[in-house]
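Reopening: NINE protein still failing for me.
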Amino acid sequence: MNNIGTAYVLWLGCLLQLHGLQRLYNGKIFTGFLWLFTFGLMGFGQLIDLMLIPGMVEEHNANYRAKHGMLPPNLPHLQPVIQRVVAHEFAPPPMVTPNRDRLVVKLVKAAHTRNGKLSVTQGVMDTEASFAEVETALRGLVKTGYVDTYNDPDTG
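Support: Ran it again with your exact input. Result attached.
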Protein backbone atom coordinates (compact mmCIF):
# COMPACT_ATOMS: atom_id res chain seq x y z
CA MET A 1 0.00 0.00 0.00
CA ASN A 2 1.44 3.30 -1.09
CA ASN A 3 1.54 6.46 0.97
CA ILE A 4 0.80 9.97 -0.32
CA GLY A 5 3.61 11.45 1.79
CA THR A 6 6.14 9.04 0.31
CA ALA A 7 5.00 9.96 -3.20
CA TYR A 8 5.53 13.69 -2.45
CA VAL A 9 9.03 12.96 -1.09
CA LEU A 10 9.83 11.07 -4.29
CA TRP A 11 8.48 14.05 -6.28
CA LEU A 12 11.23 16.09 -4.61
CA GLY A 13 13.69 13.85 -6.48
CA CYS A 14 13.27 16.31 -9.34
CA LEU A 15 15.62 18.61 -7.40
CA LEU A 16 18.31 15.95 -7.96
CA GLN A 17 17.33 15.60 -11.63
CA LEU A 18 15.45 12.34 -10.90
CA HIS A 19 12.08 13.22 -12.42
CA GLY A 20 9.18 10.76 -12.42
CA LEU A 21 10.11 8.73 -9.32
CA GLN A 22 6.61 9.34 -7.93
CA ARG A 23 5.13 7.77 -11.06
CA LEU A 24 7.39 4.72 -10.88
CA TYR A 25 6.42 4.35 -7.19
CA ASN A 26 2.72 4.32 -8.11
CA GLY A 27 3.10 1.71 -10.84
CA LYS A 28 3.03 4.04 -13.86
CA ILE A 29 6.17 2.58 -15.42
CA PHE A 30 5.94 4.02 -18.94
CA THR A 31 5.20 7.60 -17.89
CA GLY A 32 7.75 7.32 -15.06
CA PHE A 33 10.52 6.62 -17.54
CA LEU A 34 9.11 9.27 -19.91
CA TRP A 35 9.36 11.86 -17.11
CA LEU A 36 12.87 10.63 -16.24
CA PHE A 37 14.23 11.03 -19.78
CA THR A 38 12.41 14.27 -20.65
CA PHE A 39 13.12 16.03 -17.35
CA GLY A 40 9.49 15.77 -16.28
CA LEU A 41 8.19 16.90 -19.67
CA MET A 42 10.38 20.00 -19.33
CA GLY A 43 9.10 20.54 -15.78
CA PHE A 44 5.45 20.98 -16.78
CA GLY A 45 4.55 17.32 -16.15
CA GLN A 46 6.36 17.42 -12.85
CA LEU A 47 4.34 20.47 -11.74
CA ILE A 48 1.06 18.89 -12.86
CA ASP A 49 1.93 15.80 -10.84
CA LEU A 50 1.83 17.90 -7.66
CA MET A 51 -1.96 17.93 -8.05
CA LEU A 52 -2.26 14.40 -9.43
CA ILE A 53 -0.24 12.53 -6.77
CA PRO A 54 -3.16 11.89 -4.35
CA GLY A 55 -5.26 10.42 -7.16
CA MET A 56 -2.37 8.28 -8.41
CA VAL A 57 -1.77 6.87 -4.92
CA GLU A 58 -5.48 6.13 -4.41
CA GLU A 59 -5.70 4.46 -7.82
CA HIS A 60 -2.63 2.34 -7.10
CA ASN A 61 -3.98 1.32 -3.68
CA ALA A 62 -7.41 0.46 -5.14
CA ASN A 63 -5.77 -1.74 -7.80
CA TYR A 64 -3.61 -3.37 -5.12
CA ARG A 65 -6.64 -4.10 -2.92
CA ALA A 66 -8.59 -5.54 -5.86
CA LYS A 67 -5.65 -7.71 -6.92
CA HIS A 68 -5.14 -9.08 -3.41
CA GLY A 69 -8.82 -9.38 -2.46
CA MET A 70 -8.79 -6.75 0.27
CA LEU A 71 -11.65 -4.52 1.39
CA PRO A 72 -11.60 -0.77 0.76
CA PRO A 73 -10.37 1.19 3.81
CA ASN A 74 -13.71 2.88 4.53
CA LEU A 75 -15.63 -0.41 4.87
CA PRO A 76 -15.73 -2.18 8.23
CA HIS A 77 -14.28 -5.64 8.41
CA LEU A 78 -17.33 -7.85 8.46
CA GLN A 79 -16.99 -11.05 10.36
CA PRO A 80 -19.56 -13.80 10.21
CA VAL A 81 -21.77 -13.83 13.25
CA ILE A 82 -22.46 -17.19 14.74
CA GLN A 83 -25.61 -17.26 16.75
CA ARG A 84 -26.75 -20.08 18.91
CA VAL A 85 -30.49 -20.16 19.20
CA VAL A 86 -31.85 -22.27 21.99
CA ALA A 87 -35.53 -22.86 21.65
CA HIS A 88 -37.44 -23.67 24.78
CA GLU A 89 -40.64 -25.35 23.92
CA PHE A 90 -43.46 -24.03 26.01
CA ALA A 91 -45.71 -26.76 27.21
CA PRO A 92 -49.03 -25.35 28.34
CA PRO A 93 -50.66 -27.05 31.30
CA PRO A 94 -52.65 -30.09 30.29
CA MET A 95 -56.16 -29.05 29.50
CA VAL A 96 -59.17 -31.24 29.36
CA THR A 97 -59.70 -31.98 25.71
CA PRO A 98 -63.03 -32.78 24.11
CA ASN A 99 -61.86 -36.36 23.48
CA ARG A 100 -61.16 -36.80 27.18
CA ASP A 101 -64.53 -35.29 28.05
CA ARG A 102 -66.24 -37.78 25.75
CA LEU A 103 -64.28 -40.61 27.36
CA VAL A 104 -65.34 -39.47 30.84
CA VAL A 105 -68.98 -39.28 29.76
CA LYS A 106 -68.78 -42.79 28.28
CA LEU A 107 -67.20 -44.09 31.50
CA VAL A 108 -69.90 -42.49 33.66
CA LYS A 109 -72.62 -43.98 31.43
CA ALA A 110 -70.93 -47.39 31.60
CA ALA A 111 -70.81 -47.16 35.40
CA HIS A 112 -74.46 -46.12 35.48
CA THR A 113 -75.52 -49.21 33.49
CA ARG A 114 -73.59 -51.40 36.00
CA ASN A 115 -75.22 -49.89 39.11
CA GLY A 116 -72.39 -47.40 39.74
CA LYS A 117 -69.58 -49.96 39.65
CA LEU A 118 -66.97 -50.08 36.91
CA SER A 119 -63.60 -51.77 36.52
CA VAL A 120 -60.86 -50.57 34.20
CA THR A 121 -61.39 -53.60 31.98
CA GLN A 122 -65.11 -52.92 31.71
CA GLY A 123 -64.34 -49.27 30.90
CA VAL A 124 -62.01 -50.37 28.09
CA MET A 125 -64.66 -52.71 26.66
CA ASP A 126 -67.43 -50.10 26.80
CA THR A 127 -65.44 -47.12 25.48
CA GLU A 128 -62.97 -48.89 23.14
CA ALA A 129 -60.21 -46.68 24.59
CA SER A 130 -56.84 -48.03 25.74
CA PHE A 131 -56.17 -49.23 29.27
CA ALA A 132 -53.88 -46.24 29.90
CA GLU A 133 -56.49 -43.75 28.73
CA VAL A 134 -59.25 -45.28 30.83
CA GLU A 135 -57.04 -45.53 33.91
CA THR A 136 -55.89 -41.91 33.50
CA ALA A 137 -59.46 -40.72 33.09
CA LEU A 138 -60.61 -42.62 36.19
CA ARG A 139 -57.72 -41.25 38.27
CA GLY A 140 -58.62 -37.75 37.10
CA LEU A 141 -62.20 -38.30 38.25
CA VAL A 142 -60.94 -39.53 41.63
CA LYS A 143 -58.76 -36.41 42.03
CA THR A 144 -61.69 -34.12 41.33
CA GLY A 145 -63.86 -36.06 43.78
CA TYR A 146 -66.50 -37.21 41.30
CA VAL A 147 -65.86 -40.92 41.88
CA ASP A 148 -64.43 -43.20 44.57
CA THR A 149 -62.27 -46.24 44.13
CA TYR A 150 -62.33 -49.38 46.22
CA ASN A 151 -61.85 -53.08 45.78
CA ASP A 152 -65.00 -55.09 45.28
CA PRO A 153 -65.39 -57.49 48.24
CA ASP A 154 -66.65 -60.27 45.97
CA THR A 155 -64.30 -60.04 42.95
CA GLY A 156 -61.31 -58.29 44.52
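The first helix runs from residue 4 to 11. If you still see a failure, please send the error message rather than a screenshot.
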